[in-house]
Amino acid sequence: MQTGHTVGIYGYPRMLRQAIAAALIHVRQQQQVLLTDLEEGVTASHLSRVERAERGVTVEKLDEIARQLGVHPLTLLALAYGADEVVRPTDLLKQVSKEVATLGGSVAPLVIKPETRTHSRVAAANERREQVQRLKSQGLTKAEVARELGVSKQTVGRHW
User: Fold this and answer.
1) What CATH code would you report for 16-102?
2) Would you say 83 and 22 are in contact if contact means Cβ atoms under 8 Å apart?
């Protein structure tokens, strides 16, 4: 039977959105932070929707919220996954610690490499810009460049 939910550890549907909501509410209450106490970047209305499980949250936004609540983002995730998997967060963190060690992550932090690959759309736009600029430098008009490249005048105008 397909329910549209991922099944959790005990056969119950996973409820990550609700678990994250519960973790946020718990931490906010423990830290005695009101919705209106949050600074720029985290609006009270957005956090309220997340806490009602009406909205999901990106990793970046969860990081921002956690920092404003004075906890590490993994604390929120440990509480949320503990609730979702019906396991003590500290036991879950022990499991995660073992997994990290097995993967070699306990030796040194991973090195974050800057993205050197350009997205194909960006690369295509850069190439188009170069073509337009080359033909423009040869004295062609926008209409002539559009005909030469087989693109619209609007496209040429964006790269002019």
Assistant:
1) 1.10.260.40
2) yes
User: What's at 119, amino acid-wise?
Assistant: H
**Type of residue found at 21:** A
Structure tokens, 125:
């736009």
Structure tokens at 34: 């009101």
| Claim: this prediction has a pTM higher than 0.85 | no
Query: Which amino acid is present at 18?
Result: Q
Residue pLDDT, tens place only, 83-99:
999 999 999 999 999 99
Q: Which spans in the chain are helix H?
A: 16-30, 44-51, 59-69, 73-85, 89-102, 120-137, 142-149, 153-159
The rounded distance, in Å, linking the Cα atoms of 92 and 10 is 15
Domain boundaries in the chain? 16-102, 120-159
